[in-house]
Amino acid sequence: MATVLIVAPVFALIAAGYASVLFRFVSGGAHKGISEFAFSISIPALLFRTIVVSEFPDVSPWRMWGAYYGALALTWVAALMISAVMRERREDREDGVVFAIGSVYGNIVMLGIPLVLSALGNEAAGPMSLILSVNTPLLWLCGILQMELVSRKRTGSALAVIRPVLADLARNPLMLGIGFGVAWRFTGLGLNPVVDKTIELLAQAGSPAALIALGINLFRFEVKGEMPSVVAMSTLKLLAMPAIAFVLAKLLNLPPVVTGVVVLFAAMPTGANAYIFAVQYQRLVNPVSGAVALGTLLAAVTLPVVVMVVAGVR
Q: What pTM, to 2 d.p., does this model score?
């Protein structure tokens, strides 16, 4: 019952967002404004406040990154191998890179943040922020550099490829919320009660807004394209990656809360950023779209199991 109380409201809000478009209560473009509010204002406020006021477990970030990104790396390699077997034209190695991105790039912001905070509480804020702070730049850099390598279209230095990603990172509201939160925490000044209450009210809107936006956004994703590829990506993302993350977290002797964050983040379905990557390179656009839609649907079944496993660890 406790697991249902954690997971069911999350997916109910996603369903509400989807239904609002389906029944034309809002337009399909409404997700843009809601998403901008959630990810530019409310969730950065949420991250800032939780980092400033929460107690964090004393754990090495390297061990935590080792568990999460070790699982991501092993899943990435497995995805490249599976893609090579499935591809009809062996020379299309660019497809393999997009297939790998679709197999590891989880929806850890829209879905991950609300679910992790709901399941683990504010104790999860520190580990969660450490993963969030490097996830997007690391995955984009790895994807872009590997795509440049396999396509042999490199026209400039590695720095020329990396610079735009770093520039976007410096302006990313989520990263700014994390950065300012860490900096303010180190001052030891805490938060004035009026300021704290104001930020708290703003932060409370973040998770519901993100989930509603996710539901609205899902309306444009369809389960279409090569079904074997869609199923393979979803299986790697929803089953293989969290299983590997759990094993690595145990081997690295991570505390229960940190293990919970690592495994839950690893269990998130394929996110919209994987679709954006596919569109950018015009590779496997339909299969990745299908993986976003099917993965989110299947996550309603797989995530309660993961939450129960995490609860058992605690």
A: 0.87
